[in-house]
Amino acid sequence: MSQSAIDVARNAARFLLPEFLLLATAIAIMTAAAFTKQSRKLWCSIAALALVLALVSVWAQGNVHTDAYSSVVLNDDLSQSARIVLILTGLVILGFAHQEPSDERAGEFFGALLTINAGAMIVASANEIVLLFVGLELVSIPTYLILYLSRRHAASREAAVKYFFLSLFASSLLLYGLGFLYATTGIGNLKAIGFLLDKLPGVPQPQLGLLAIVFILAGLSFRLAAVPLHFYAPDVYQGSPIVIAALLSWVPKAVGILAMARVLTGVFATKEATDPLLQKAVIICWVIAATTMVLGNCVALLQTNLKRLLAYSSIAHAGYLMVGITAAFAIDNRAGDLYSGTESALYYLVAYAAMTLGVFGLLSAIVADGKGIETIDDLAGLGWSKPWVGLGLAICLLSLAGIPPLAGFWAKFEVFSAIIAATRRDGSGMFLLLAVVGMLSAAAGAYYYLRLVVIMYLVDAPPKTDYTLRGGWPVLGSAAACVIMTVVLGLFSNPAVQAAKLAAQAALSRPAPPVAAALSEPADRRILRVAGD
Amino acid sequence: MATLLVITILIPLIAGLGTAFAPALSRDQARKIALGTVVVTLGLSLILLVGFRPEVHGPQFAFQSLDGHYGLSWIEKPNIRLAFGLDGLSLWLFVLTSILMITAVCASWESIGERAPQYYGFLLALQTGLLGLFASLDVVLFYIFFEFTLIPLFFLIGLWGGPKRKKAAVTFFLYTLAGSLLTLLGVIALVAVHYQYSKGHILTFSIPELTSGLKVIEWDAWYDTGSWTSPQVLIFMLLLAGFAIKVPMFPFHTWLPLAHVEAPTAGSIVLAGVLLKVGTYGLMRFNLGMTPRGAEAMFPLIAVMAVAGVIYGALAALAQTDVKRLVAYSSVSHMGFIVLGIFAFNATGLDGAVIQQINHGLTTGALFACVGMVYERYHTRELAQMGGLWNRFPLLAFFFMMAAMGSAAVPGLCGFTGEFPILVGTFGVAPRTAVLAATGMILGAAYLLWMLCKLLFGPLKEPGGHDAHPGETGHGGHTSIPGIAWYEIAGLSPLLVLIVLIGVYPPPFLDQSKQGVAKLVTELPPQAGVTVPSTHDLARAPGGPKPLIATAAATTPMAAASPGDRP
């Protein structure tokens, strides 16, 4: 079914209703805050209400599909699931941040948070190059604002400026890459580009395709904090309040992976694995994944500042996500029932959200001797003076280390299953090597998580630090939700796993085109190919 | 019965969580709850043991759905299942865990003062981890329990251990984790290979299905073990990484002495008694069961590592002055024997290995318990500071001696019924290896007798006090040292009974595991690998070591299963 231009616009408006809702609320809050003086409580409640309404409207959209080759916005499984997860984590971050800004800056702060959320949701559902880029910028620009709003001292200003320039740089790299992608076919619809690349011989022109992949990967690597564009993360995390660090460790990563699923693997990864362009992409991703995992895990071992440690930990996790993307480039449409690369990366994101937000949230709630937590030694004996907080923190840390039966274990299991499943097609041992490198660096990485657990629990003398909690029920409630999700995703991961599988299939699907008599080869290639022989 | 198995596995965890989180539980209440739980669990395990039918092939007590899969679906796609069941290889380890847990709780009765509810909580959680591990019929489930056991043991060592407990706990955790992550890769690779090359592309995580399926997959490269990089050898090595550390095989044993010495007594008992068996159990289930040709090709390497472990462990034990370290190194030595038996590729050796796992669990568990009791009384483990303890604690000394004798493989006690078949089985395959390993037996007798001699016999010598002559036991500062208490007797006597029983009449014990062993052996590939010496065929030749079986264990009708027995 082909759509007229009016249909396209109407559908886009309908599918983007939750995003419009958030953006309208954000604009209203920010405008109103300039003229009236209200407490941050009010702005925070309005923002929370908007998120809840957005959640309801995502649900209400239901299972409506439109023609993928003419729509700007898709309402497939990927966009549905991703938007639900993004709104829920948005609520969690709002809970952490409800006391963060001062009253006079609260309007801008919560408005920016809503805009970031809306931008991330747009990325999840975009099917047009331009819309995708708009979504990414809707995440970036308010982030500069948020970083600068909390200007407390020189370090946080430095962090804001550093992030601003690097982010601009990364965005321009990305835009450059998107330009090349557009140039490969001359159309902007991502599903259509993917379809044409699949069907037309000689498209894309190899150099052009490679330039597109390289620049898009580079631009999105910044969002993921993957090597070589990772180096801002420790400084920026350290310079910002812990709540902002939580935001930075989650939202840009989610956006980066979703954008990769939409614009890279979703477009390119349905070609044959022997395609030279795809093989080059696999090698680039391989290198990024391996160096990111090794660097993140090894440098984190040396950190004593908690925020820097978590920054390197988030770099390491970017490496595991890139393993999933590598696998996605290598096999995706042919993974059969075993985990596919995109699927594993998406599941990893969900698990990562629960455990990393749990850690940041609990850390933001702890006050040691009247000060916030700065270094790892500030946690000494926490496990015994605040047993529940300590338990929650320990669960999230062990999950980050990948200890079963927690969410982080399944995430690693899926990612490494996907890469090993890629081995069987390739046969060169390259992917197995990546898996071994990943596992060994994960084992090294377990040390720094474990060290925190040791500091919290294995104390010789009763702790001298006087711990109190701040933030009230919103912070503790959100953190508890994260911890519970970390456990639940470990013990009953089936719903999330199946949702990730459907979302990944949606990202890769190529529905039969409405007018494609000339290209009549069956488009659906999601059959397991018997390989190797 | 299937429900009973699941209940048996879950009871300790539920009780453990309850104990750890219950507000204001006193030490006395906590330990009573713990003892009650382990006794109930043992009772249920014994019901399972009685209900086990040795003649049945395949796992028992398992739920089986209509489409033939074991257990309940956990993750729909890919089909990962919550499947539990016991077979000949796991049954005795399952029961052993339940028995040793009683010893562990009894050994902690007085020695654990601080944070007792949490202590027993971790101990019981550890029990669930181990029971679940041995009963798992799904590779992912197995792996989850495999790694889950690290958490409680980490806290048991780290919170209630000796002076260097932090280092010991962290070393133990990371060392084991590093290996087991590689094992996870191997496991995933097995599943992926089976999915790719089996007839009909079956994606399964079930241990029984993978074990039989991987023997018949249609991929020639799988059966070729010519080089280090051939798939089966590579996967064998990945699997080996985790299990070799867990066993521990030389040279991956370095975490063990530290962990043992620093762990609280109960931790040592469980660590030596059961957790090391996880390694050998994994070797049997995965390395031998799923990559038999890789095992054949790598036999020279395994044999060297095992024999080096046997001799090195024994020599290191001889050089120790700390009793606990001595027992720890003896574990390295004895576990080398078990590995040798597993990779002898014949029923005799494997039978010996299966029974020796139990024996080692019983004797080493008892030895650690005895060492812990001595330490509680004198707060030292130095051999030089003690002597003649028989005069003061005859009953404890008797337990100590029986455990040591059993460990030294004195005929009539349990160690002999395990180590002898192992040596016989190995001799048929690699005579020189067997001869070298036999020296380990001699050295084993040497260090254990030497330890007994110093510690138990001769004139009474007590640390802190003066040397005393027999009869003068009441002097010095030691009048207040208590004799052996009821809970110590309760913890040790079941072990002692089994040590004697297995030594005198092993057939009932071997019968239960017969089918599992026979299954592994008959499913070995029909011809020897490339790098294995031709003596290998001896093991399967009619005139080979089979007649020796009768010598090994009296009337054991083992390895008699022929393919015709199968349903």
Strand content of chain B: under 5%
Rounded mean pLDDT of chain A is 86
Structural class determined from secondary elements of chain A: mainly alpha
Main sheet: strand order of chain A: 2-1-3
Topology as H/E string of chain B?
A: HHEEHHHHHHHHHHHHHHHHHHHH
Give the end-to-end Cα distance of chain A, rounded to a whole number of Å: 40 Å
Task: Show unreliable segments of chain A.
Answer: 516-533
Total DSSP helices of chain B: 22
Principal-axis shape of chain A? globular
Q: Pair with the most extensive interface?
A: A-B, 43 and 44 residues
What's the β-strand tally of chain B?
A: 2
General description of the model:
The complex is a heterodimer of chains A (533) and B (567). Chain A has 533 residues and is an all-alpha fold. Chain A has helices spanning 5-15, 17-35, 40-61, 77-97, 106-125, 129-149, 154-185, 190-199, 206-224, 232-239, 242-268, 276-300, 306-331, 341-365, 382-385, 387-400, 407-426, 430-457, 472-491, 494-508; strands at 366-368, 371-372, 467-469. In chain A, a hairpin with a 2-residue loop joins strand 1 (366-368) and strand 2 (371-372). The radius of gyration of chain A is 22 Å and the shape is globular. Chain A has one domain (8-508). In chain A, 61% of the residues are buried. Helix content of chain A is 73%, strand content 2%. In chain B, 63% of the residues are buried. Chain B starts with a helix and ends in a 15-residue tail after the last helix. By secondary structure, chain B is an all-alpha fold. Chain B contains 22 helices and 2 strands. Chain B has a domain at 314-474 and 482-567. The model of chain B is unreliable at 466-477 and 526-567 (pLDDT under 50). Chain B has helices at 2-21, 27-51, 88-107, 116-135, 139-148, 150-160, 165-197, 207-213, 220-223, 231-246, 255-262, 265-290, 292-297, 299-318, 323-342, 347-378, 394-407, 414-429, 431-456, 486-504, 507-522, 548-552; strands at residues 72-75, 80-82. In chain B, a hairpin with a 4-residue loop joins strand 1 (72-75) and strand 2. In chain B, helix 12 (265-290) packs parallel to helix 15 (323-342). Chain B has a two-stranded antiparallel sheet with strand order 1-2.
